[in-house]
Amino acid sequence: MWYLNGGLPTPLEPVDPDASEYLMPRGREPEVWAVIERESGALAGWVALFAEGGTDVDDRTGELGYRFFRAFWRRGYATEAARAVISDAFERLGIVRITARTMAVNTPSRRVMEKLEMRHTGTRVVAWSDPLPGAEEGEVEYVLERQGWSP
Ligand SMILES: CC(C)(COP(=O)(O)OP(=O)(O)OC[C@H]1O[C@@H](n2cnc3c(N)ncnc32)[C@H](O)[C@@H]1OP(=O)(O)O)[C@@H](O)C(=O)NCCC(=O)NCCS
CA dist 6 to 81, 85, 117, 135, Å? Predict the structure, then answer.
């Protein structure tokens, strides 16, 4: 949670997840996929792809997000799970463009985006109500287009 709320513990049932400044799934959203480690059956984390955009087929976009328990970091799970969700979005949901955002200083998250062959399209400084260390370096946005993508 370091790059989301400064690393504070969060309640199991957030008071109002919709008021959160960052994605706070309740676990029942169809867009949020639980990532289960095959050999142990343990919940390792989640990956989400929220569809956005208009009703026009050529206009359908999605935003990618992920969060894993520390015990499961650096095993390739975020990259593997995000790849599966991207394939599903392009092939089943008909999404044409996927974006992802993170703090510029969140190196692991940016590395996942780079490994997914997403393109860094911009950096902007956001006026957070309670900025985290590194917020002054801004938020980066990465994009992946269906056109030219191969599974
Ligand atoms: C970001 C996060 C999901 C990455 O998960 P992960 O399963 O460890 O990622 P992967 O194992 O697929 O690793 C992807 C790449 O990132 C690199 N990486 C992962 N953790 C890293 C770290 N702490 N420092 C530097 N590089 C790191 C990996 O080495 C790998 O690159 P490589 O193949 O070139 O070595 C995980 O660190 C996490 O849950 N962080 C907290 C939540 C968060 O910040 N989410 C994003 C908010 S926008």
Answer: 25, 27, 28, 11
pLDDT digits (tens, 9 = 90+) for 56-107: 666 899 999 999 999 999 999 999 999 999 999 999 999 999 999 999 999 9
Nearest to 97 by CA among 140, 151, 59: 59
Sequence ranges of the domains in the chain: 2-145
Sheet hosting strand 61-68, strand order edge to edge: 32-36, 43-52, 61-68, 97-103, 139-145, 119-124
Is there an atom of ligand 1 within 6 Å of 70 CB? no
Domain at 2-145, CATH class: alpha beta
Residue nearest to atom 20 of ligand 1 (CA): 108
Mean pLDDT of 8-29: 76
The answer to whether 24 and 15 have CB atoms below 8 angstroms apart is no
User: Using CA positions, which residue lies closest to atom 29 of ligand 1?
Assistant: 74
Give the residue, 99 or 5, on which the prediction is more confident.
99
Please compute the mean of the pLDDT values over residues 118-134 and round it to a whole number: 91
